[in-house]
Amino acid sequence: MVLTRVFRAVGRSTLLEAGASSVGQHGQQLVRLPLRRKYTYRSGALKPMPEITPFGLFGIICTVIPGLLIGATISKNMANFLEENDLFVPSDDDDDDD
Q: How big, in percent rounded to 5, are the helix, strand and coil portions of the chain?
């Protein structure tokens, strides 16, 4: 993505230099850079409207909350498994504040 921006900038600068050498009457450039936008085709015709997602915010909420709950359940089960098999047992040395 960064490289495409660099190459586009280099291409535009070379077009501008070429256009500066071919300046016509009243200081106007004969070479015009194409102005490309996200909502038009190369021919200049407008693109159709994008599809609208019917359940935008509701869909996000219905995806994120179950994902968090499933992730929390998996991590809780893995912590219990590690502790039962003595693979990871928290040390009791941290509780010596008394």
A: 55, 5, 40
Query: Which pTM value belongs to this model?
Result: 0.42
pLDDT in tens, 62-83: 999 999 999 999 999 999 999 8
Beta-carbon count within 10 A of 4 CB: 8
DSSP letter (8 states) at residue 98 = -
Residues of the chain with pLDDT under 50: 15-16, 18-20, 22-24
What is the rounded distance in angstroms from the CA atom of residue 62 to the CA atom of residue 55?
10
The encoded tokens of residue 92 equal: 């009791």
Based on the number of CB atoms within 10 Å of its own CB, is 74 exposed (0-12), middle (13-18) or buried (19 or more)?
exposed
Whether residue 30 contacts residue 24, with contact meaning beta carbons closer than 8 Å, is answered with: yes
Q: How far apart are CA 1 and CA 41, in angstroms?
A: 21
